[in-house]
Amino acid sequence: MIYDISQEVFSCTVFPGDPSPVGRRMETIESGGICNLTELTMCAHNGTHVDAPYHFIDDGKTIDEMSLDAFVGDCYVVHHTGDVTGEDAENILEKASANGAGERILIGGKATVTADAARVFADAKIKLIGNESQTVGPENAPKEVHMILLGEEIVLLEGIVLKDVPEGKYLLNAAPLNLGGCDGAPCRAILIEQ
């Protein structure tokens, strides 16, 4: 089974203060054009997207400089509500590693990764962490958690949809658009049941 864990772009959740995506029909067959053609305007962090280190670190890697290895591979889905503490992070990693999927962690539910949890994930040298919120850390103070994780070049996959995905191991494909020099990019994230 394949799970689409991406938000639809035009109806997606937008981080407070970011512009919403806009689509405009530039040409339509109905009005005599030779094709239908859409212009798209959006923030690189709308809907389901990935953050590169450059998002918070001025000399960090941009999205096109990141290895695709981080975005594609085995992952572990876990559901959690509330703050993810350092102890929670250790338990999540233990469960994920026992299932052979300790490099990429996806957290479903209304969860916020704390700085203590971020340090546990960073020390474990995971490749990617994902969550359902539009930011991995606290919405009112995201910088510290981003700095800890992006400082270790851990990819952040934000704005995923995991409500219908059972906990367990999956093959993740969350390859971003190849946006040269950008701090992040939208992606069509999918999970394949193994």
Task: Outline the structure in words.
This protein has 194 residues and is α/β, with parallel strands linked by helices. Helix content is 16%, strand content 29%. The protein has 3 helices and 13 strands, in the order ββββββαββαβαββββ. The chain has helices at 86-98, 115-123, 143-151; strands at 2-4, 22-27, 37-41, 49-51, 72-79, 82-84, 104-108, 111-113, 128-131, 155-158, 168-173, 184-186, 190-193. The protein has a 9-stranded mixed β-sheet, with helices on one face. Helix 3 (143-151) links the parallel strand 9 and strand 10. Helix 2 packs parallel to helix 3. The N and C termini lie close together (8 Å).
Seen as an oligomer or otherwise, the chain set is single chain
| Count of DSSP-assigned helices | 3
Q: Which whole number gives the mean pLDDT? A: 97
Q: Order of strands across the widest beta sheet? A: 1-13-11-5-7-9-10-4-12
DSSP strand content? 25-35%
The helix-and-strand class reads alpha/beta
Give the overall shape, derived from the CA principal axes.
globular
Rg (C-alpha, Å): 17 Å
SSE order, one letter for each helix or strand: EEEEEEHEEHEHEEEE
What fraction, in percent, of the residue positions are helical? 10-25%
